[in-house]
Amino acid sequence: MRKGVSIRKTNETDIKLSIELDSQKPSRINTGIGFFDHMLTLFAFRAGISLTLDCHGDIQVDGHHTVEDVGICLGQAITEALGDKSGISRYGTAWIPMDEALVQCVMDISGRGFLVFNADYPSPVVGGFETELTEEFFRALTHNAGITLHINLSYGRNTHHIIEAMFKALGCAFAEAIKKTGLKTPSSTKGIL
Questions:
Q1: Other CB atoms closer than 10 Å to residue 181's CB: what's the count?
Q2: Largest Cα–Cα distance of the chain, in whole Å?
Q3: Terminus of the chain with fewer CB atoms < 10 Å: N or C?
């Protein structure tokens, strides 16, 4: 079973996060930010993984530290769960429509953290969640998981739909990228990722 754990305690956040990449157990997620919890639940469901997360952050200030630090912890747990990445597909792509919004997500679990993020939102806040934090989450995740990630919003007018499509697309692409191929080595001509 591919599992990963990350614990982070700072003056701003106290996080305990674990993932199981081959489990269908329901996820349990609590960050104190309802909209963010909903997005992470959608990601985990579409990725076909189990995510357990308990985060206490300084959300009385704003959501920034919580969202970024959860991205850091999720990235670290993914790295641990994948080990040397032997036998994974490595690449994943998803196009997800959410009503009027259409989002593309393309990833390479390459060991090189890089984010390309092309999206603007009609609203600066949705469900008490500052929409600019979406990019911060993806940046922290990619850099700590060693994932090259491209997220492109083709079009959309509803901010909730746009962000929801992003998290669902991330989950679908991730599920494809972590699929086991049956190979005993990493998916690279270099022999290492």
A1: 12
A2: 49
A3: N
pTM of the model as a whole = 0.95
Q: Mapping DSSP to helix (H, G, I), strand (E, B) and coil, where does residue 157 land? A: coil
DSSP-derived secondary structure for 70-104: HHHHHHHHHHHHHTT-TTB--EEEEEEEETTEEEE
The whole-number average pLDDT for the span 106-127 is 97
What whole-number distance in Å separates Cα of residue 176 and Cα of residue 89? Answer: 7
Average pLDDT over the chain, rounded to an integer: 96
Closest among 22, 24, 18, 27 to 2, alpha carbons compared: 22
User: H/E element holding 154?
Assistant: strand 148-155
Q: 156: phi > 0 → left, psi -120 to 50 → alpha, else beta; which?
A: left
Q: What is the pLDDT of residues 25-40, one digit of tens each?
A: 999 999 999 999 999 9
